[in-house]
Amino acid sequence: QVQLVQSGSELKKPGASVKVSCKASGYTFTSYAMNWVRQAPGQGLEWMGWINTNTGNPTYAQGFTGRFVFSLDTSVSTAYLQISSLKAEDTAVYYCAVSRILVKFDYWGQGTLVTVSS
Amino acid sequence: QSVLTQPPSASGTPGQRVTISCSGSSSNIGSNTVNWYQQLPGTAPKLLIYSNNQRPSGVPDRFSGSKSGTSASLAISGLQSEDEADYYCAAWDDSLDVVFGGGTKLTVL
């Protein structure tokens, strides 16, 4: 069965960087695109963008350019989200989710809480 | 402010039928399909409805979706206590982004 297992919670200071991982299993890694979705505390879902797992080409949603980087290590079926120059407003749960069709997020990781606080 | 508009809350008693609306525009719902996600408390979202009205394997037929023009709806019939969750609609927007509704918190009274 498809499983997406994300790395654990992170506590970071403003200005630092964080790298969240999402390890996939139960399917051929390149058969689904990988998406990232943010959920701030008590708020709704925001799509951050996606990365083509065949080519490694990332696409960032509006509002998620510059400090956000999607990457892959296909040898270990893992996707990464790196956020640099962290701000307090980056505090959120970050989810990875796979799709074959944009918007149809078939499976989700359990989420990674990133807390930015001095 | 979300691009898709949902009521912040909805409620019903066990066995009742509840509907949740999702309003958009010609650049999203009006020209693309709608998906719905269920987020149980403290868990990750789960795909509930795709392509306006299709259920993934394992989703009970108590859940149904529809779309008309620039609006969509999720209906839950035979409401159960375990349906208490947040529900989100989502669609592709022609500005090249996936857009979500703000979410509707469903309470089973």
Overview of this structure, please?
The complex is a heterodimer of chains A (118) and B (109). Chain A is mainly β. Chain A is built from no helices and eleven strands. In chain A, strands 2, 4, 5, 6, 9, 10 and 11 form a seven-stranded mixed sheet that branches. In chain A, β9 (92-101) and β10 (104-108) form a beta hairpin. The termini of chain A are far apart. Chain B is built from no helices and nine strands.
Search tags:
heterodimer; A: 118 residues; mainly beta; 7-stranded mixed β-sheet; 0% helix; 54% strand; B: mainly beta; 6-stranded mixed β-sheet; 46% strand; globular
Strand content of chain B: over 45%
The gross shape of chain A turns out to be globular
Report the count of strand segments of chain B. Answer: 9
What is the terminal separation of chain B in angstroms? Answer: 28 Å
Give the SSE order of chain B as H and E letters: EEEEEEEEE
Helical segment tally of chain A? 0
Broad shape of chain B: globular
Distance between the termini of chain A: 40 Å
Our Rg estimate of chain A from Cα atoms comes to: 13 Å
Helix content of chain B: under 10%
Largest protein interface, residues of each chain: A-B, 19 and 25 residues
Q: Roughly what percent helix of chain A?
A: under 10%
Major β-sheet of chain B, in short? 6 strands, mixed
Oligomer: heterodimer
Summarize the main sheet of chain A.
7 strands, mixed
- Count of β-strands of chain A: 11
